[in-house]
Design a protein that fits this description.
The chain has a 7-stranded parallel sheet with strand order 8-7-6-9-10-11-12, sandwiched between helices. The longest helix has 19 residues. The chain contains 12 helices and 12 strands. Helix 1 links the parallel strand 1 and strand 2. It is α/β, with parallel strands linked by helices. The protein has 2 domains: about 120 residues, NAD(P)-binding Rossmann-like Domain (Rossmann fold), CATH 3.40.50; about 190 residues, Rossmann fold (3-Layer(aba) Sandwich). It binds 2-OXO-4-methylpentanoic acid (COI). 2-OXO-4-methylpentanoic acid binds next to loops.
Amino acid sequence: MKLFVYNYRDFDEAEYFTRYSAEYGVELGFCKEAPSFENAELAKGYDAITIITSKMDEPLLKRFKNLGVMMVSTRTVGYDHIDLKAAEALGLMVSNATYSPHCVADYTVMLMLICIRKMKRIMERAAINDFTLPGMQGKELRNFTVGIIGTGKIGRTVLKDLSGFGCKLYAYDAFETDEVRQFAEYLPLEELYRRCDMLSLHLPLSAETRHLVNAEAIGRMKPGVILINTARGALVDSAALIDGLESGRIGAAGLDVIEHEFGLYYYDRKADVLDNRELSILRGFPNVVVTPHMAFYTDQAIDDMVRHSILSCVAREKGENDPWKIV
Ligand code: COI
């Protein structure tokens, strides 16, 4: 089995690619760049490619298919960057890679605490030796009513973690589970918006969930609500979020993801004029913390991502059941 690795990071993935390729008998090829028309030829003669969040549209998928590639595995949980319909029509297999939900769950709770304890302001002030108290008073998490939107593995882990803080917990998902009912009461989305003073998004991005949090939804939320997003930027309409923050309808936001982040995150763009105005505006608010899609980034997650991506390709090659099969 020959697997070509795009977006290869030698500083953190090498150890796992070396270990698991030897363990599962896989021959690897590497490219540090994202897959593109320019570098697709490198994957000629390989059975599968493994990628991260780069856009895989119909023309690019077709290019790989024509080069003999049979499978695209993304070393990410989310797969909204891959045109699944096109992949299916082309007969290309697609899989994702699950990893420990604790990385994102821990980070979500951290963003919640950062928001309610005004940590951005505390750190900015302390960095210039302003050690004063006015304006820095925070709130206690146990006094919050928190709504978790999306109760897949990550949402469920956040709920479990929050249950230790003693806050009132509600949840929304189209598919309800008994595990969640141990910690939270399921509510329709409207009711969740009405009751919660903190909301955290844990849904996949799809045509149905794009801009779930728009001006109308924000208008139905509790005034001063705190919004946490560690899922996908496009779940939130950034323009509506900015309006909500300016009017005070949104009290604070913790955003590990943002719309149109592709091409920014994981690159050194410090010398560039960025073409993402929303990022600049949101970053400028004292009550908004923006981080560059790092919630997943732990040693455990990278181990899982590499291992599961390799295992998924190996399973398909052998015609065995692939737990990460998407298409
Ligand atoms: C995912 O796994 O879906 C993520 O969001 C992390 C990825 C950007 C590396």
